[in-house]
Recover the amino acids of this structure.
C-alpha cells in the first residue's frame, strides 16, 4: 500500500490535470444525469399538453447537453492520455537511470528479464491504474455516498439496510484483496521469469543451435510460460469468485428491499411511488459496486507492480561518491596506482579472492599481472575503476583513496579494455567514443591506429556503420581491437588492459604491440596477461597467486628466479608442445 | 580511397547514434513492410493466426457464450421481478395479509441471483482459462518459431527484439484476454435486440434512430485505419526501448566504466519519448472515438425525442412508445460506448498480433529437411563441393571452395583475420547454408540431415563461451542432457577443469549466474570445452577456443585434444600455432581460398606462408 502511495511523487507534476479530469468527469456525469430530467420535461410538458410550445427549446437544450457531455468525455480522456502515459514514461526513465547506477554486484545477481518486466509490464499496470482505477474509485465512492444519502431521505429503515450492505462488501473486498495481491505479485514475478528465459535463450541462440538443444530450451520456456498460465488461471478463478459476489450482493439487497419495501407499503409506512423511486435509485448502485471488484483488482496489480519497481529503485547503489569526495583532474593526475593490503571477495560467495594484496604501479609504468586462469586478475583490475569496492585495504591513485574521488572523475582517469569486448548495436563511432563523447576525428584515427583497427574505415559506411548486436558480425579479433581503441581514445592516466591481445593472430599482435608501445610510454598501465608475447608490453611483471602478489620483476628475472612464474608463462614448455 | 559507398539511408537526426545498417528493415521481419498491400497481407495473416489460435477452443467458447446468455437473462430478471413484486405482490398483502405472491417473487428473485452468480462465475473462470491457454499457445508458437529461424535472422533482428515480441507484445494481447470479450458479446447482442424492438415499436422513429448507424460505421472505420497505424508504431517504438534497455543491462560494466550513463540516458529518454508520443497519439485517437460515439448517441437521442414528440403531437404515435424509445436508446448507445473501449484494446492487440504474425511468417532460411536422410554409421567425412558463399551478394566470402576432409582427420585453418575461417566453421555446423554448392557429411548433404542428428554429429567451441544461468554440471551436460555425473566429471577432468570446479564452494552444483558471470573468462572457456567434449560429436570444430586460457591450462587442453581428436574429424582454428601443430593437415586460407595445404611439418619445410607464420610465432614466444 505504502508503495502505491509513493506513486504520488510521479503524479504530482500532473496534479492540475488530474483535478481537471475529476471535475470533467463529475460534470459529464451531471450532464448525463440532467438529460433524463429534460426528457421527463418534454414528455410531461409539451407532449402531455399537446402543444409544441417550448418543445424546440427543450430539444435544443437536450442537444446541447448531449454535445457537452460528449465534449467533456473527449476532453477528459484527452487529458488522461498525457497523465497516464506521462507517469509511465517518467517512471521508466527513472528505472533506467537507477539501474544504470547500480553496482556491478547487483547486475551479477539480477537477470535482465526481471528488470525489463518491471520497466514494461509492471509499468503498464500502473498506467492503467493512473488512467482508470483511481478516477473510477473516486467517482464510484462519490456515487455510492450520494445515492445512499438520497435513499436515507426517502425511507431511512430501508436506506440503512442498503447502507449496511457496505459491511459484507468491505469484508469481501478485504479477503479478495488479500488473496489477489499474492497472486498478482506471483504473476508479475513469473512474467519476469518468462522474460528472463526469453532473453537468455535469445542471447545464447548460437550455443542452443550448435548443440541442437532447441527442444530443451523450448521445453524450458514452455515450463515457465505454463507456470505463468497456471498462476494467471488461479488469479482468474479468484476473480471469478469475487466478481460474481460483487454482482450478487447488490441484487440480494435489492431483493431484501423489495420484500421489506412491499411490507412497508402494505403497512402504510411508504407509498408505492416512494418504493419505485427507491428501487430506481438503488439500481444506480449496481454498476459502482460491480466495478469495485475491477477497481480492487486493478489497484492491487498496480500495488504489487509498484512494490516490484520500488524494490529496485530502493536498492541503494553500493558504489557511489562518498560525502566530500573530490575530483581528480585529468591534467593533474600522474597515475600512481597502489593497492595496499587489498582484500576482496564477491558478495554471497563466501570466498576471498584477494587476500591482502600489495602492489605499486609507478607513474608511467606498464605492469603486467600474470597468473593462472581464475586466480583473480580480472577481479584485481576491476577494483581500480571501482566496479567493485575492496572489502579491506585500499586502492589509491596518486596517494588518494579511489573512494575519496568522485566516480566520474575516477573513471575519467581510469579506462579499461575488458576481456569480453562488449560492443553495442550502434555505429562504430558511438562504440568507440563511449568514454569520450567529444573525441575528434583525429583522436579516433589515432586510437584506431594504435589498436590496428583501421578496418572499420572499410566497412560499408565507415564509422557510421552499425555493428551488430555485441558486434557479432565482426570477428573476435576485430572486436577486441575496437575495445582496445575504445580504452585508448579516453587518454586516461591509468590504462587497464585485460588480456587485450588474446584473440589476435601473431602478425596483428605484433603490429598492435608496436603501436601500443608509444601510448604506454606516457601512461600508467596494468595489463593482465596469459602469453609471453603480451608480457613484452610490460616494464615489469607481477605474479598473482593465492590472492596475493608473490613476485614482481622483469620477465627474464622472474623466469630465472620463480618456478611458479615459469610454470605459468614459460615459452619453453609451449615450444616443447609445439615441437612434439 | 573509398571505392563505392552504398547510398546512405535517411536516419533521424536524434537516432544518428544507431549508425547505418543495410536497410532499416533489417530489423523487421520480411512480412512487415510499409506499403499498403504488405500491411493488408500482414493483417490477413494476423487474423488467420487469431483464427488458428481460437479454433481448438471453439467448443469451450461456445459454452462460454451460452453461460453469458443465461447470466444476462438472469440479470435482466431482477428489474422485472421488482416490478412484478410491486404490481402483484403488494395488493394481496394490503387486502388480506396474503404474503404468498411476494414470497414467490422473492424466491424467484433469489433463484435468479443464484443463477446469475453461478453463470457469471462459470463464465469468468472458463473464459479466463481459455484466454490464458490461448496466450500460452501463442507464446509457445512464437518461441518455437524463433528457435527455428537461422542465426542470420537473429543477427539482424537482435535478441532485444525477440524479447520485445515475447513480452510486451504478449502483454498487449493479454489485455484483450483479460477483459472485454464478454462485453463484446453482450453489447453486440443488446444492440441487435434493441434495433429489432425499436423497429417493431415505430418503424419511422426507428429509422431516425438507426440513422446513427452509418455515422458510427464511418467513425469506427476512421478509428480503425488511424489507430492501426499508430498502434503499429507503438509496438515498434516500445521494441526499440526494450532493445536499448536489454543492451545497456548486458553491457553495464562498459557503460559504467566509460561513464556512459548520461549519454545513455539521453538516448533512452529519446526512445522512451518516441514511444510515449505514439502512445499518447493512440490514446487521443481513442478519446476522439469515445467522445464521438457518445456525441452521436446523444445527438440521436435528441433527434428522436424531437421527432418523436412531433409525431405524438400529430397523433402518429403515442406517449408510451416515445418513453420506451428514449429508455431503449440509452441501452442502445451505452453498449456502443463499451464496444468503443473494447475496440481500442482490440486494435492495440491487433498491432501486436500482426507483429507476431510477421515473425511466424518468416521462413527459416536454414530450414529443416522435409525428408531427412539418415546418416550412415559414424565416420565423419566432410566435403565441400563447389561451394560459394556470401553474407551479402556484393561481397563473396568464399569463391568456389572445394575441400575434402577424410574421416578422423584433424585440419587446422590458418590465415589472416577475415580470410573466411570462421565462415567455413559456420557452414560445417550449418549456421548458414552455402549460397551455391553442397557441404556434405559422410556423403549426405547437411541440408538433408535431420536437425537433432546433425547437432549430435557436429559440435563447435567458439571464443564466445556463452553459459546459461544454472549449475556448472548442467552447463557441461548441455549438449548431452542424459549424461551422468561421472561422465560430466570425466569430461571436466579430461580438459583440466575439474580442479577449479571442485575448488568452488558448491563444486559442480555452483550456479554460474547469468552468462556464467560467476566464473572467470578462462574458466568459462574450459566449461565450454568440457561441454563440447561431453557431446562427443563425430566432427568437432574449435574456433579460437583457447584464446583466454593460460599456458598451463592450454597445455592441458592440448594434451586432451591429442587423445580426443585422435579418432575424430576436427577443424581447428587458432592463432596460437601450438594448437595448430597437433593437426594432421594445415590449410592456409587467403580471401576464401586455400593457398597452402599439407601436413604442418611439410609446410614448415616448404618455406611458404605457413613457414613464415610459424617463424613469426616462434619469435613471439621469447
Ligand atoms: N562476478 C563474480 N561473482 C562471483 N565470483 C566471481 C565473479 N567473477 C569471478 N569470480 C570468481 O573469482 C575468481 C577470480 O576470477 P577472475 O578475476 O575473473 O580470474 P582471472 O584471473 O582469470 O581473470 C574465480 O574463481 C571466479 O570463479
Ligand atoms: N555475419 C556476417 N555478416 C556479414 N559479413 C560477415 C559476417 N561474418 C563475417 N563476415 C565477413 O566475412 C569475411 C570472412 O569472415 P570470417 O569467416 O569471420 O573470417 P576469419 O574467421 O577468417 O577471421 C570477413 O570479411 C567478414 O567481415
Ligand atoms: Mg580474467
Ligand atoms: Mg574468425
Amino acid at each position: 500500500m505504502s508503495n502505491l502511495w509513493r506513486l504520488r511523487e510521479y503524479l504530482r507534476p500532473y496534479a492540475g490535470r488530474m483535478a481537471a479530469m475529476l471535475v470533467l468527469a463529475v460534470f459529464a456525469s451531471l450532464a448525463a444525469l440532467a438529460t433524463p430530467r429534460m426528457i421527463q420535461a418534454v414528455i410531461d410538458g409539451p407532449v402531455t399538453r399537446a402543444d409544441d410550445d417550448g418543445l424546440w427549446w427543450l430539444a435544443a437544450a437536450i442537444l446541447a447537453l448531449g454535445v457537452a457531455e460528449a465534449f467533456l468525455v473527449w476532453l477528459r480522456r484527452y487529458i488522461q492520455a498525457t497523465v497516464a502515459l506521462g507517469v509511465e514514461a517518467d517512471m521508466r526513465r527513472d528505472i533506467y537511470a537507477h539501474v544504470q547506477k547500480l553496482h556491478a554486484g547487483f547486475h551479477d545477481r539480477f537477470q535482465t528479464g526481471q528488470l525489463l518486466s518491471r520497466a514494461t509490464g509492471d509499468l503498464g499496470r500502473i498506467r492503467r491504474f493512473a488512467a482508470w482505477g483511481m478516477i473510477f474509485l473516486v467517482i464510484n465512492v462519490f456515487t455510492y455516498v450520494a445515492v445512499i444519502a438520497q435513499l436515507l431521505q426517502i425511507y431511512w429503515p430501508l436506506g440503512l439496510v442498503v447502507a449496511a450492505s457496505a459491511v459484507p462488501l468491505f469484508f469481501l473486498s478485504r479477503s479478495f484483496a488479500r488473496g489477489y495481491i499474492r497472486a498478482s505479485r506471483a504473476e508479475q514475478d513469473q512474467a519476469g521469469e518468462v522474460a528472463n528465459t526469453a532473453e537468455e535463450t535469445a542471447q545464447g541462440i548460437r550455443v542452443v543451435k550448435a548443440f541442437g538443444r532447441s527442444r530443451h530450451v523450448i521445453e524450458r520456456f514452455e515450463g515457465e510460460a505454463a507456470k505463468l498460465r497456471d498462476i494467471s488461471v488461479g488469479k482468474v478463478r479468484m476473480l471469478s469468485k469475487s466478481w460474481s459476489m460483487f454482482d450478487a450482493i447488490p441484487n440480494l439487497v435489492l431483493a431484501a428491499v423489495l420484500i421489506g419495501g412491499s411490507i412497508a407499503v402494505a403497512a402504510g409506512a411508504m407509498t408505492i411511488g416512494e418504493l419505485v423511486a427507491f428501487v430506481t435509485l438503488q439500481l444506480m448502485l449496481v454498476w459502482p459496486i460491480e466495478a469495485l471488484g475491477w477497481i480492487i483488482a486493478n489497484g492491487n496489480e498496480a500495488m504489487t507492480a509498484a512494490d516490484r519497481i520500488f524494490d529496485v529503485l530502493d536498492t541503494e547503489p553500493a558504489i557511489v561518491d562518498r560525502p566530500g569526495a573530490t575530483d581528480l583532474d585529468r591534467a593533474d593526475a600522474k597515475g600512481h596506482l597502489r593497492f595496499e593490503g587489498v582484500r576482496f571477495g564477491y558478495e554471497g560467495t563466501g570466498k576471498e579472492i584477494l587476500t591482502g594484496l600489495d602492489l605499486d604501479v609507478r607513474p608511467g609504468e606498464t605492469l603486467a599481472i600474470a597468473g593462472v586462469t581464475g586466480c583473480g586478475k580480472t577481479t584485481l583490475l576491476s577494483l581500480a575503476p571501482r566496479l567493485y569496492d575492496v572489502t579491506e585495504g585500499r586502492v589509491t591513485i596518486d596517494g588518494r583513496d579511489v573512494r575519496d574521488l568522485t566516480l566520474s572523475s575516477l573513471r575519467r582517469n581510469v579506462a579499461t579494455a575488458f576481456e569480453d569486448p562488449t560492443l553495442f548495436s550502434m555505429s562504430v563511432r558511438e562504440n568507440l567514443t563511449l568514454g569520450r563523447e567529444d573525441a575528434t576525428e583525429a583522436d579516433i584515427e589515432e586510437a584506431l591506429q594504435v589498436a590496428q583497427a583501421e578496418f572499420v574505415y572499410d566497412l560499408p559506411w565507415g564509422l557510421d556503420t552499425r555493428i551488430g548486436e555485441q558486434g557479432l558480425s565482426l570477428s573476435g579479433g576485430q572486436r577486441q581491437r575496437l575495445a582496445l581503441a575504445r580504452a585508448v581514445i579516453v587518454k586516461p592516466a591509468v590504462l587497464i588492459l585485460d588480456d587485450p591481445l588474446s584473440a589476435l593472430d601473431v602478425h596483428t599482435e605484433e603490429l598492435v604491440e608496436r603501436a601500443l608501445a608509444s601510448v604506454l610510454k606516457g601512461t600508467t598501465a596494468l595489463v593482465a596477461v596469459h602469453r609471453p608475447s603480451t608480457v613484452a608490453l610490460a616494464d615489469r611483471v607481477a605474479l598473482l597467486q593465492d590472492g596475493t602478489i608473490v613476485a614482481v620483476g622483469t620477465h627474464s628475472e622472474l623466469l630465472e628466479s620463480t618456478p611458479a612464474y615459469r610454470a605459468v608463462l614459460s615459452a619453453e614448455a609451449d615450444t616443447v608442445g609445439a615441437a612434439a | 580511397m573509398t571505392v563505392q559507398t552504398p547510398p546512405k539511408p535517411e536516419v533521424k537526426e536524434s537516432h544518428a547514434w544507431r549508425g547505418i545498417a543495410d536497410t532499416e528493415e533489417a530489423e523487421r521481419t520480411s512480412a512487415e513492410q510499409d506499403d499498403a498491400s504488405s500491411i493488408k497481407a500482414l493483417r490477413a495473416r494476423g487474423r488467420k493466426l487469431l483464427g488458428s489460435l481460437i479454433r481448438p477452443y471453439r467448443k469451450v467458447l461456445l459454452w462460454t457464450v451460452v453461460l453469458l446468455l443465461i447470466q444476462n437473462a438472469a440479470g435482466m430478471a431482477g428489474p422485472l421481478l421488482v416490478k412484478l413484486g410491486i404490481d402483484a405482490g403488494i395488493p394481496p398483502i394490503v387486502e388480506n395479509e396474503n404474503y404468498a405472491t411476494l414470497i414467490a417473487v422473492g424466491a424467484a428473485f433469489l433463484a435468479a441471483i443464484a443463477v446469475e452468480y453461478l453463470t457469471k462465475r462459470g463464465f469468468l473462470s472458463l473464459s479466463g482459462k481459455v484466454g490464458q491457454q490461448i496466450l500460452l499457445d501463442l507464446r509457445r508458437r512464437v518461441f518455437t518459431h524463433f528457435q527455428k529461424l537461422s542465426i542470420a535472422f537473429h543477427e539482424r533482428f537482435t535478441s532485444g527484439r525477440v524479447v520485445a515480441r515475447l513480452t510486451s507484445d504478449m502483454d498487449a494481447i493479454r489485455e484483450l484476454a483479460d477483459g472485454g470479450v464478454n462485453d463484446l458479446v453482450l453489447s453486440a447482442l443488446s444492440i441487435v435486440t434493441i434495433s429489432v424492438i425499436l423497429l417493431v415499436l415505430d418503424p419511422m422513429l426507428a429509422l431516425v434512430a438507426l440513422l446513427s448507424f452509418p455515422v458510427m460505421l464511418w467513425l469506427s472505420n476512421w478509428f480503425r485505419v488511424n489507430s492501426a497505424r499508430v498502434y503499429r508504431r507503438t509496438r515498434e517504438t516500445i521494441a526499440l526501448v526494450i532493445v536499448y534497455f536489454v543492451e545497456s543491462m548486458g553491457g553495464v560494466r562498459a557503460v559504467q566504466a566509460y561513464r556512459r550513463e548520461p549519454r545513455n540516458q539521453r538516448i533512452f529518454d529519446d526512445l522512451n519519448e518516441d514511444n510515449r508520443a505514439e502512445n499518447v497519439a493512440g490514446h487521443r485517437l481513442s478519446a476522439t472515438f469515445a467522445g464521438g460515439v457518445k456525441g452521436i448517441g446523444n445527438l440521436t437521442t435528441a433527434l428522436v425525442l424531437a421527432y418523436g414528440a412531433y409525431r405524438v403531437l400529430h397523433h402518429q404515435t403515442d406517449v408510451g412508445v416515445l418513453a420506451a424509445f428514449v429508455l431503449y436508446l440509452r441501452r442502445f448507445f451505452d453498449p456502443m460506448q463499451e464496444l468503443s473501449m473494447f475496440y481500442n484494446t482490440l486494435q492495440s492487440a491487433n498491432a501486436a498480433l500482426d507483429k507476431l504474425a510477421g515473425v511466424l511468417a518468416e521462413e527459416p532460411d536454414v530450414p529443416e529437411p522435409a525428408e531427412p536422410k539418415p546418416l550412415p554409421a559414424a565416420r565423419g567425412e566432410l566435403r565441400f563441393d563447389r561451394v560459394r558463399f556470401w553474407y551479402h551478394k556484393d561481397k563473396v566470402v568464399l569463391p568456389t571452395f572445394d575441400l575434402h576432409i577424410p574421416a578422423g582427420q584433424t585440419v587446422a585453418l590458418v590465415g589472416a583475420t577475415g580470410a573466411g575461417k570462421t565462415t567455413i566453421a559456420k557452414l560445417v555446423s550449418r549456421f548458414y547454408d552455402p549460397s551455391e554448392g553442397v557441404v556434405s557429411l559422410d556423403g549426405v548433404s547437411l541440408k538433408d540431415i535431420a536437425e537433432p542428428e546433425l547437432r549430435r554429429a557436429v559440435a563447435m567451441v567458439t571464443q564466445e563461451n556463452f553459459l546459461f544461468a544454472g549449475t556448472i554440471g548442467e552447463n557441461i551436460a548441455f549438449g548431452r542432457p542424459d549424461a551422468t555425473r561421472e561422465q560430466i566429471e570425466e569430461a571436466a577432468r579430461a580438459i583440466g577443469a575439474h580442479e577449479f570446479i571442485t575448488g568452488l564452494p558448491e563444486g559442480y552444483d555452483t550456479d554460474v549466474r547469468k552468462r556464467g558471470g560467476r566464473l572467470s573468462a578462462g574458466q568459462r572457456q574450459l566449461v565450454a570445452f568440457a561441454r563440447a567434449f561431453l557431446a562427443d560429436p563425430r566432427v568437432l570444430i574449435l574456433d579460437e577456443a583457447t584464446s583466454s586460457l593460460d599456458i598451463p591450462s592450454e597445455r592441458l587442453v592440448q594434451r586432451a585434444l591429442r587423445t580426443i581428436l585422435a579418432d575424430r574429424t576436427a577443424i581447428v582454428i587458432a592463432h596460437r600455432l601450438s594448437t595448430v601443430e597437433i593437426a594432421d593437415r594445415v590449410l592456409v586460407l587467403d580471401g576464401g581460398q586455400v593457398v597452402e595445404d599439407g601436413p604442418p611439418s611439410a609446410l614448415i619445410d616448404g618455406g611458404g606462408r605457413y613457414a613464415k607464420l610459424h617463424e613469426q610465432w616462434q619469435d613471439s614466444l621469447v
